Each structure stands twice: as C-alpha cells, then as structure tokens.
Automatic annotation (TrEMBL):
It comes from the Bacteria. The keyword Chaperone does not apply. GO terms for molecular function: isomerase activity. Residues 1-20 form the signal peptide. InterPro entries: Thioredoxin-like_sf, TPR-like_helical_dom_sf, TPR_rpt. This is Thiol-disulfide isomerase or thioredoxin. Pfam families: Thioredoxin_9. It comes from Parapedobacter luteus. TPR repeats lie at residues 254-287. Keywords: Isomerase, Signal, TPR repeat.
C-alpha cells in the first residue's frame, strides 16, 4: 500500500510543470579560505577543482573505489544525450565527497558531454547556508547536499537528493527512462508544488498539508533543515509555515518550536514566540536556551 502511494506521488509529480532552469552563470572556480583556515569551493566550478589540491584525496578515494554496475550504466548511457545535469554540492560535505566522484565516474564511463554538467558548490555558513555566491540555487528548493538535478529541454525531469534511493545507476536509469521515481525527502518536493506556501497559511490549510505530507515525511529533521535554508535566504514567512507544519507532524519534537520562536521573535511576534518557547519547555523542562529566550521576552 505504501509503495502504491509513492508510485502515485511520482506520477503526479512528473505531470507538474518545472519552472526552474539549469544554471547559466559562468564558471568561477572559487576557493574560499574561512577564518579558521578551512578551504572550501564555492559557486560554479569545473570538475577539475575537485581533482586537485586538498580535495584530491577524497575525490580519488571515492572515484577509484567505486565499481560501476555496467549493465545498468549501459542502459542509461544513450539516454543521457541532450540532457543537462546540475549538481549542488559542498566540498565540506561527507555525502558530496562520496557521491559526486562516483557520479563523475559514471558520467565519464558513459561519455557524457561534461559541458552539460553544471557543478555548483554551496556554503554551510550561517549567512550563506546551502547557497552559492552566484545564487544558482534560487527557486530550486536546495536543502540537502548533494542534489543532482536532471534536465531535458530546460525542464527538470527529477532529482536525486543527498543519497540515491537504490543506486546511482538505478536512480539515473529510472529518471532518464521516465519511470516513477520518488527521491529522498519527497515531503519537500510536495511542499514546493503548492502555490500558496510563501503566504501566511491558515490552521486549516496547514492541517490539510499535514494530512497529505505525513505519508512521505520521514522525520522532523527533514522539514527543520529546509526551514533553515529558507530563513537563510530571507524567506521567513515560508520558513515559519514549514515549521508550523512540522509541529503538526511531530508535536513531540522541541526543535521546531524553538526554531519557530526565533523566527517569530525576529518578526516582532512576541506572543507567538513566547507560546512556542513554552511548548519547548513543556517538552524539555531543562532546555536552558528556551528558558533564557523566554526570560528575555
């Protein structure tokens, strides 16, 4: 029954128009050194940036250590023709360090035209959370890294989020052949398909969305993480909607209430901030951060 539900969702998603376009920004190959001395890649980069310097060790380890499923790769290789692949990655991210060298090995073995590969490195700092300095992520709901988006004729076919559902080869074959495919964190994809989520949602509308999303939301961290990305981009109303939804899905999770209180405090909604802090303390009486914030209000 659950598999049937996922299949129906995938069919619905494939019928919806995709408005995001692959990146058209120039390759900048930016390496940034943080105040603590850590070097990271940022913005639109060529794959060669991962193959040298401090990045080469993890790139070579994942690339050389991966064994391609040649049977599946042979099936999807001809389907890559005319496609654009956009990758949002983080050189600081363990999942990126594992999955993207493997993806490169697959694409190289399939003779994919790498001029049609858009490799975007995002930051994980507070001010640029899950964002690129060139903001290629805008409007694309990038909340987990890596995110691999496949386009055809400028329209998104589907995406692999953070890790493959089955394997890189199988997931790409499913996407390229038009089979039903539901990525990880599909609750975010469903949310993004709604037209009204950037406006303040009523309790009734949030309850409706909670009913729809509860079958595909895996844990509280899924939507919490997305709310952080939205807030970092200045989309505070939508971020608050996401967290309000999460409190309906996971009423025993104090993190959503705490994050909501901070958003409402920032917006000057003192009573709503206090209400959510009180919920945190009801769930976690020893939460010193919530107690301190409540005292300040």
């Amino acid at each position: 029954m659950r598999q049937l539900f996922y299949t129906l969702l995938a069919v619905i998603a494939s019928a919806l128009p995709a408005v995001a376009q692959p990146a058209s920004t120039p390759i900048v190959n930016t390496e940034y050194t943080r105040a603590n001395g850590q070097k990271v890649l940022l913005g639109h980069c060529s794959p060669s940036m991962m193959q040298g310097g401090i990045y080469r060790e993890w790139y070579d380890r994942s690339y050389d250590g991966y064994t391609i499923d040649s049977g599946l790769a042979k099936q999807f290789a001809p389907l890559l023709d005319g496609k654009v692949i956009e990758v949002f990655a983080g050189s600081w991210c363990g999942d990126t360090r594992r999955e993207i060298p493997r993806l490169m090995k697959l694409l190289n073995s399939s003779n994919f035209d790498t001029t049609q590969l858009k490799l975007i490195f995002v930051d994980n700092s507070r001010d640029l959370y899950k964002q690129s300095p060139q903001h290629e992520e805008a409007g694309k709901a990038i909340h987990r890294i890596p995110t691999i988006i496949v386009y055809e004729d400028g329209k998104e076919l589907n995406r692999i989020v953070e890790t493959p559902v089955n394997s890189l080869e199988q997931d790409l074959l499913d996407i390229l052949s038009g089979k039903p495919y539901v990525s990880n964190y599909y609750a975010i994809t469903y949310w993004q398909q709604q037209d009204d989520v950037n406006e303040k949602l009523s309790a009734e509308r949030l309850a409706e969305l909670a009913t729809a999303i509860k079958h595909v939301s895996k844990n509280a961290g899924e939507l919490n993480s997305y709310s952080y990305a939205l807030a970092a981009q200045g989309q505070l109303t939508e971020a608050a909607n996401v967290l309000e939804l999460n409190t309906l899905l996971y009423p025993a999770d104090p993190v959503s209430y705490l994050s909501l209180s901070k958003l409402y405090r920032q917006a000057g909604e003192v009573k709503l901030a206090q209400k959510n802090l009180q919920k945190v303390l009801a769930l976690q009486p020893d939460n010193s951060e919530a107690a301190e914030l409540l005292e300040q209000l």
